[in-house]
Specification:
By secondary structure, this protein is α+β, with helices and mostly antiparallel strands. 50% of the residues lie in helices and 14% in strands. The longest helix has 33 residues.
Length: 707
């Protein structure tokens, strides 16, 4: 099988026919799952043949006489959609309110871990937020609302370039020549040669070579024209590519639409091949030759031959064995006009000499069989496939063995619809029941409407048929069906509902932790130390820099969210319990800084980020503020006295300052005003310490004799 052959691929050029055969095998295998997905999409979005806009049955829509009658009830019930959206909202809320932490393996990595937590959050919040909101919701819709109930998140490092025109003249060319010399002698030699080229127009070819070296992205035709302009005016301009985006990128992939993997796969990391599909415009294709080094001849062939063509369109998903005639008749699809289909095949390959595994990425087009866009080793330092699996449940090791919510509530939704249709029809027949017309009257045209008149000759010519009494159990039956569905998804009992929600959140965030972990390591790999230092406000980039050897295994990332935060009453009780817990901390076992951060994050994650400092920063701020206070005292300025500060630490700093600083000691001896300010400052600090001790005595009844 093609799948087995892919495992034999090694370091050499990609075997495009082999990759294409594997992709076709995946597509042929996809029919069963696509059947299921289509069926349960109709359940969620409540679609069926003969459906009308007014929620009634009509013969012209169904093609046959409706049952029980024309214009009978045919309501839409959104039970599956409603429960799905509740889960999607839970997933979104838990993701955006989750607490993310980066920690190092060794104790000295604590500060650097905090820096990289901030760097990752910087990209997520400042450069990716609209994209993040979109992709997280799309992913959640796939995980909870489709069957198979899975989503695949792609995690990439995204770089995008644009061109800007840059002028060059005699001076810039000379500077370029000197900059590329390895010694002063070579520089002088190159400058002499450069002067000869300038003086002799017959040496334009050498000048073109020089300008091309200075502008490597410029096409030869453009360079030749720029050289002509330079000869005439002494200056010219050429396009220079510059990086406009350099950040992580998340893409929620939909199975069999833009991501393809064999259904027998049990772990994406062990998949023989994963294929991703993208649609590009002509401009985007051309840009790939600069940003990703694609083959220019491949791009030209794509633009010339493949506009709007799709390899996926060749397969009838409900009958994979379509005839070749049917395949050939599909042609260009109108909705793909101006777009070009590109596939990326991710394969695990091995170096036969060193027996070293690696992931290779091959970009190709199914319509260009003799060339590929690129084939290169994926250089991500985390050494993993850039895809993370999300599932609603795991019934077995099979990747796709996960049921979506529409599949689980299908029969319940039909039961609710049946009861509502019955009541609607009963209401309709009660408002206008059938008329009883005396047989001897023959054909009688009757208009039954408010204020209408019906002419009769005898009282019993026309009468109403007495409808059967309305069913008393219909509402109860509908409510029982909905209750069954609710019980399945946690029910109304607060404890059971909390346990269910927490299980959903844990499974969801477990996969997101992997995504964020990959993103963190990509940031460590591609964000230079100078940029990282600017993001976190550090002057020395070495404090932030990461050794490349430490990227893969030096740091750990956690992502947590407690579902009880969504219940204000429960959260209030929990906060009170945590507050009471601090009163039992007689040994100082509680890390109060971490507890403060937890409480602040429980109230509002953004609030915690803005107002709560990490312990090291908080301690340093206390030291700096107290030292500044004594600088003010030395200049006869009384510092502000604040509440809620670290009085013991500040008292210690005050003692050190007055003992170490000879200048302050001299002023204390010579200036009575400074002496009074210093005494008042010490009283303030000592009183603060005493107040904290009094609070301890109030709880414990005494204080330690020693210490």
């Amino acid at each position: 099988m093609a799948k087995d052959k892919v495992l034999e691929m090694t370091w050499g050029e990609p075997d495009l026919p082999l990759i294409q055969a594997e992709l076709e095998g995946i597509l042929e295998d996809s029919a069963r799952n696509l059947y299921r997905r289509d069926d349960f999409d109709r359940v969620r979005f409540w679609q069926w043949d003969g459906q009308s806009d007014d929620g009634r049955k009509h013969e012209d829509a169904t093609g046959e006489q409706p049952i029980p009658w024309e214009n009978a009830s045919d309501v839409r019930v959104r039970l599956a959609d409603r429960i799905t959206n509740e889960h999607v909202n839970l997933a979104l809320e838990s993701f955006f309110r989750a607490n993310m932490r980066v920690s190092g393996i060794e104790k000295e990595d604590r500060t650097r871990s905090a820096y990289w937590t901030d760097i990752l959050k910087y990209f997520l919040e400042q450069h990716m937020l609209p994209e993040l909101r979109r992709e997280v919701e799309i992913l959640a819709q796939q995980v909870f609302g489709t069957t198979p109930a899975i989503g695949i998140m792609g995690c990439y490092w995204h770089q995008q370039t644009h061109n800007r025109l840059q002028k060059f003249d005699l001076n810039t060319l000379a500077q370029f020549v000197v900059a590329n010399a390895e010694s002063e002698e070579e520089a002088m030699q190159l400058l002499n040669e450069f002067q000869m080229i300038l003086q002799d127009e017959e040496m334009d070819e050498r000048l073109v070579e020089l300008v091309s070296a200075m502008f490597p992205a410029a096409v030869p035709k453009r360079v030749k024209q720029a050289v002509k302009d330079f000869r005439k005016t002494g200056q010219a301009e050429l396009p220079v590519p510059y990086l406009t985006e350099n950040r992580p990128k998340f893409t929620a992939h939909r199975l069999y639409d833009d991501i393809f993997v064999h259904s027998t796969c049990t772990d994406l990391e062990r998949a023989s091949m994963i294929v991703r599909r993208e649609w590009y415009t002509e401009t985007e294709l051309c840009e790939k030759t600069v940003s990703e080094g694609w083959s220019e001849s491949f791009v030209e062939k794509c633009i010339e031959k493949t506009e709007g063509l799709s390899n996926i369109e060749q397969y009838d998903h409900r009958n994979p064995l379509v005839s070749s005639m049917a395949r050939e008749s599909r042609g260009i699809q109108g909705n793909n006009d101006g777009l070009y289909e590109i596939f990326y095949a991710y394969t695990r390959q091995y170096d036969p000499e060193n027996n070293t595994p690696a992931i290779f990425c091959t970009a190709f087009s199914s319509s260009v069989t003799d060339e590929h866009a690129k084939h290169e080793m994926l250089d991500y330092a985390h050494c993993k496939m850039p895809f993370v699996l999300f599932t609603r449940e795991r019934l077995s090791r099979a990747l796709f063995d996960s049921r979506g919510i529409p599949e689980l509530v299908e029969t319940t939704q039909y039961e609710v619809k049946t009861q509502r249709d019955l009541r609607n029809d009963a209401s309709q027949i009660n408002v206008i029941p059938p008329l009883l017309v005396n047989a001897r009257r023959g054909g009688l045209n009757l208009l039954v409407a408010p204020a209408s008149q019906i002419t009769i000759t005898r009282p019993d010519d026309v009468g109403w048929l007495q409808p059967p009494p309305p069913s008393q159990g219909s509402i109860e039956a509908e409510q029982a069906a909905e209750n069954d569905a609710r019980e399945y998804f946690g029910g109304e009992d607060p404890e059971n509902r909390l346990l269910y929600r927490q299980a959903v959140v844990n499974r969801w965030l477990d996969s997101w932790r992997i995504v964020m972990d990959q993103s963190l390591r990509l940031c460590m790999q591609y964000v230079d130390a100078e940029t990282a230092a600017r993001i976190v406000g550090v002057e020395n980039p070495a404090e932030v820099a990461i050794d490349p050897n430490d990227i893969a295994n030096k740091f750990d990332l956690s992502l947590r969210f407690s579902a009880d935060l969504l219940n204000p009453e429960f959260m209030e009780k929990k906060l009170e319990a945590l507050k009471a817990l601090t009163q039992f901390d007689v040994t100082g076992a509680l890390d109060r800084n971490k507890l403060l951060m937890y409480l602040a994050e429980a109230i509002d994650p953004q609030l915690a980020k803005d107002v709560v400092l990490d312990p090291t920063t908080a301690q340093q701020r206390e030291i700096d503020e107290e030292q500044n206070a004594w600088i003010k005292i030395a200049n006869e300025i009384e510092p502000v006295m604040k509440e809620g500060v670290n009085f013991p630490l500040r008292l210690q700093v005050a003692g050190q300052v007055t003992q170490i600083s000879q200048e302050i000691q001299r002023k204390l001896n010579e200036n009575e005003n400074i002496q009074a300010l210093a005494q008042n400052r010490m009283k303030y600090l000592q009183f603060g310490v005493q107040q904290q001790e009094n609070a301890q005595i109030g709880r414990m009844g005494t204080k330690p004799i020693q210490g």
